[in-house]
């Protein structure tokens, strides 16, 4: 390196440097040989704090319009001249300007923000519901604020207060069971709400009415067609309205086929994997076991499958299992779970549409109840009861799908 420095510097008027030559050094050496070379102007480095943040005035200057015109354009005021609005949007795009949503809210009087209350973020059902709700919100230029209650009333109150502070225009209460007094803050402020299954009487409230009976009836008839008569049901927490409706639908459906389940086969769970494991262990301890189990949700059913596998019982050969919800995970467990589908996308669409109908009078939609259908999806966790297909000599028993019910493609 020392030799390189001596040889290199020798070509520049015999000057030497104690450090490796740089572009700046070479330029200074060039100035010694050629005094007419312009001197280097050191450009001061701009601090982050000095960088100017774009605002509405920059857009107005770039588009050659008034600040008021930019404001009215951003807030979709219909009286703005179309040519001026086109120039404003072009400037916004060229400047990569992002309007301040809080400032827009102050001008328009609207936050375009919906709250979404759910029970438990760790249950795969709810992230799928959130995704659908957010898709519809983005498509219609709304934002969402999510609150997960984790079945805790104190946490619920915090979520509601946060939504009121953020000036939400409406709240979708998708907790499938909630104490009405906790919502008084929303009711007093006349904030529109949408509930699942049951709602307090109010002009600003809509209800998503889920047809639990049809899907559960299809599941029960599917099991009956396979030859099952010893049917069990694992419910969710019975203080929740939705769990009461699902159990009631099951009892109506088994009554239709002339079956009366043993009392010990009707067990209350809690809609979790651990609850499904605990309740299935209870069923396995019964003196007389059922041949098929219908569960109030898929998480319960997946927990039940694990216990059956651990006990060495083959599904569906020794026990058939049906879930409810048809979460994405249901088709990837082993065996793939037969379940009643309640579309999260349908729920999200109905919830968003109901809230939007309340806050946008131009939609002229006065519907108070929004129906949600359910349908059986048959996979591989249901089959003949043990011994039913023994007469099929040489042929292994397989999971059978009812021809008149939903089939997976």
Features:
single chain, alpha/beta, 434 Repressor (Amino-terminal Domain), Rossmann fold, 3 domains, six-stranded mixed β-sheet, 12 strands
Can you describe what's shown?
The protein has helices spanning 2-10, 23-33, 56-63, 67-74, 82-95, 101-108, 125-139, 153-165, 184-188, 212-226, 241-256, 273-284, 298-310, 344-359, and strands at 113-118, 143-148, 170-174, 193-196, 205-210, 231-235, 266-268, 292-295, 320-325, 338-341, 369-372, 375-377. With 409 residues, the chain is α/β, with parallel strands linked by helices. It has 3 domains: 54-108, 434 Repressor (Amino-terminal Domain) (Orthogonal Bundle); 113-210 and 347-372, Response regulator (Rossmann fold, 3-Layer(aba) Sandwich); 212-341, Rossmann fold. Strand 3, helix 9 (184-188) and strand 4 form a beta-alpha-beta unit. Helix 3 crosses helix 4, helix 10 (212-226) runs parallel beside helix 11 and helix 12 crosses helix 13. The longest helix has 16 residues, at 241-256.
DSSP summary, beta strand count? 12
How do the SSEs run, as a string of H and E?
HHHHHHEHEHEHEEHEHEHEHEEHEE
Name the CATH superfamily classification of the largest domain. Answer: Response regulator
Please name the CATH topology of the largest domain. Rossmann fold
Q: What's the level 1 CATH class of the largest domain?
A: Alpha Beta
Low-confidence stretches: 1-14, 390-409
Level of helix content? Answer: 25-40%
Strand line-up in the sheet with most strands = 2-1-3-4-5-11
How much is the radius of gyration in Å?
A: 33 Å
Could you say which overall geometry the principal axes of the C-alpha atoms support?
elongated
What is the CA–CA distance across the termini? Answer: 72 Å
């Amino acid at each position: 390196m020392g030799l390189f420095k001596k040889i290199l510097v020798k070509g520049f008027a015999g000057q030497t440097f104690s450090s490796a030559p740089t572009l700046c050094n070479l330029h200074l050496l060039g100035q010694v040989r050629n005094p007419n070379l312009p001197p280097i102007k050191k450009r001061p480095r701009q601090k982050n704090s000095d960088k100017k943040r774009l605002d509405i005035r920059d857009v107005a200057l770039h588009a050659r319009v008034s600040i008021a015109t930019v404001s009215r354009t951003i807030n979709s005021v219909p009286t703005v001249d179309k040519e001026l609005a086109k120039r404003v949007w072009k400037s916004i795009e060229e400047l990569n300007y992002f309007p301040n949503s809080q400032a827009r809210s102050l001008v328009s009087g609207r936050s375009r923000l919906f709250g979404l209350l759910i029970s438990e973020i760790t249950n795969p059902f709810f992230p799928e519901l959130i995704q659908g709700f957010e898709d519809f919100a983005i498509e219609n230029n709304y934002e969402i604020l999510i609150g997960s209650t984790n079945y805790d009333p104190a946490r619920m109150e915090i979520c509601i207060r946060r939504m009121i502070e953020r000036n939400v225009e409406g709240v979708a209460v998708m907790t499938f069971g909630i104490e009405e007094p906790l919502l008084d803050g929303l009711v007093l402020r006349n904030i529109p709400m949408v509930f699942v299954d049951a709602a307090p009487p109010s002009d600003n409230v809509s209800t998503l009415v889920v047809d639990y009976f049809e899907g559960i009836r299809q599941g029960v008839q599917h099991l009956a067609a396979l030859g099952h008569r010893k049917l069990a049901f694992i419910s969710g927490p019975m203080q929740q309205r939705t769990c009461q409706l699902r159990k009631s639908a099951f009892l109506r459906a088994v009554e239709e086929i002339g079956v009366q389940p043993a009392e010990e086969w009707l067990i209350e769970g809690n809609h979790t994997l651990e609850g499904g494991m605990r309740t299935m262990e209870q069923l396995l301890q019964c003196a007389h076991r059922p041949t098929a189990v219908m569960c109030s949700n898929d998480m319960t059913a997946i927990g039940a499958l694990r216990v059956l596998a651990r006990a060495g019982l083959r599904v569906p050969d020794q026990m058939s299992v049906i879930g409810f919800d048809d979460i994405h995970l249901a088709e990837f467990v082993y065996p793939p779970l037969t379940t009643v589908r309640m579309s999260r996308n349908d729920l999200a669409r109905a919830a968003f549409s109901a809230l939007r109908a309340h806050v946008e009078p131009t939609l002229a939609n006065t519907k108070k109840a929004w129906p949600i259908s359910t349908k059986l999806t048959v996979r591989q966790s249901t089959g003949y009861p043990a011994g039913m297909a023994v007469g099929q000599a040489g042929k292994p028993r397989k999971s059978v799908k009812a021809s008149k019910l939903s089939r997976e493609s």
